[in-house]
Amino acid sequence: MATPETRKRTPRAPKNGGVIAAREQAERALKIDEFGGLDMEISLGSLRHQTEFAARKGRKAELQKEIASWAAEMKSSEALIADGAGYSVHISPQAMKRSIDDMKALFAALGEEKFFANCSFTLEALDRLISPGRKPQFITFLRSGPRT
Fold first, then answer.
1. Which of 34, 36, 60, 98 stands 20 to 30 A from 90 (CA)?
2. Beta-sheet strands, E only, within 17-57
């Protein structure tokens, strides 16, 4: 739950006649309402044709990216609520990213057996680290995916 200091509303146009800010605010409100309407249409399944659905979903993704960019200058821990005339959009704080910083210390803490029982490499990492000629030594290739 956001606390008062981490949750903000979209800034309003200055009262001293900031024409550019007022125009930008009005444009943002229209985009928020368009986004909200598209979200409602898509979630209710009210789009009849697949091409219409794809186009609307694409437009929604464009709007989502643009709306999220409005919070780019904010602290990563802050949330933002952007208001339109009929809809409001909550822009969440940035997600937490976790990573292991000291693999050697982890190895020492767990011991060899537990470490290797839980250790894994992505195939993309192995592709970068192992030459193609040596891959069969380490990687099993098996046809098990879906047919197209």
1. 98
2. none
Cα gap 90→68, rounded to integer Å: 9
Which amino acid makes up residue 83? Answer: D
Banded pLDDT at 7 (limits 50, 70, 90)? very low
Say how far apart CA 59 and CA 65 lie, in whole Å. 10
- Per DSSP, helices labelled H in 45-134 are 50-69, 103-110, 112-118, 123-129
CA distance 125 to 135: 12
Judge contact between 79 and 90, C-beta under 8 A.
yes
Nearest 5°: the CA angle 32, 36, 40 is 170
Pairing of strands 88-91, 7-9: unpaired
Amino acid sitting at position 118: N
Whats the size of the chain, residue-wise? 148
Give the Cα separation of 36 and 64 in Å (integer).
Answer: 10
pTM: 0.54
Report the relative pairing of strands 79-83 and 88-91 from DSSP bridges.
antiparallel
